[in-house]
Amino acid sequence: MKRTAIFLLSLVTLLPAQATVIKPDPPNIAAKGYVLMDFHSGMVIAQKDATEPLAPASLTKLMTAYVVGQEIELGRLAWKDQVDVSENAWSAKFPDSSKMFIKPGDIVTVEDLMRGLIIQSGNDASVALAEHIAGSESAFVNLMNSWAEKLGMQSTQFVNAHGLDAEGIKSTAMDMAVLMQAIIEDVPEVYVLYSEKVFTWANITQYNRNKLLWDRSLDVDGGKTGYTTEAGYSLASSATEGRMRLVSVVMGTASPQDRVTASKNLMNYGFRFYDSQQVAKRDDLETEVKVWKGKTDEVALAFKDDIFVTLPRNAADRLDKSIVIDGPVVAPVEKGTSLGRVEWRSMVN
Q1: Predicted TM-score (pTM) of this structure
Q2: CA nearest 51: which of 173, 159, 157, 133?
């Protein structure tokens, strides 16, 4: 018998549990919009108005940092590259808002500017990085919006590199959760900076505004705060517990403490009542199917991506799997073609 290991995409369907798993409703969150998402599976555990366009404030800087990270990944930028600070990036241009306190003529490394951007939430650092990478802030914003489109952030529009209120600027809790997910996965060298608690520049020491980094009840390793008059107080954050990582985005709360409390309540709810499990690995062979009218008798089906499922606790480890093939397979069959799907069903009883 002739066989070939052509890797073919298997689509994944998670079916409802056969029995009801009792769990409480999500916590009541006083925010304009929020979402709690499992990082690995992308499942939304809890949400309210998660796709409602809102002012993103300094959550915008998540995309600024992501673009910088991608430029480094592509080899067009290095952490030790030196940036000549222009008058446009002068901290004096941003009164009554967060800044790194750079001034025209300063020569600052990309690495230090990224700390000023992430830890100090510097609007000045945002502009300095934007101009160095793209020549102007407006050209950099085009990069930001192009990456947003590529990531599927369908309701997001950036108009500046820092997030101060301006006509047309908008995003959603869901889009920001997708962006957090992308930063963690795509540019890990950038994400590690979000765990740093303090940074000193120009003899001015500032502390990370994400107060969850100091919370000992949660293993929060990153996130970004935001505030403007239009946006209210927002916080995007991520935490791990065991094999699970959660991403929380809370937008438009009434105070700095409210955004912390809301994020903590969401995280605790997710970790207490849900669990995630990897059920398939990329390129793992799943099954073989007969091929008609071909040079080979069978082809092997494999997974295109790692597959995770998120379910109520005690259900994730009790899954039944079935394979559904979409009719007879007739040659020629191109590598990467979807020929069926795998269905998992919770067997909790």
Answers
A1: 0.89
A2: 173
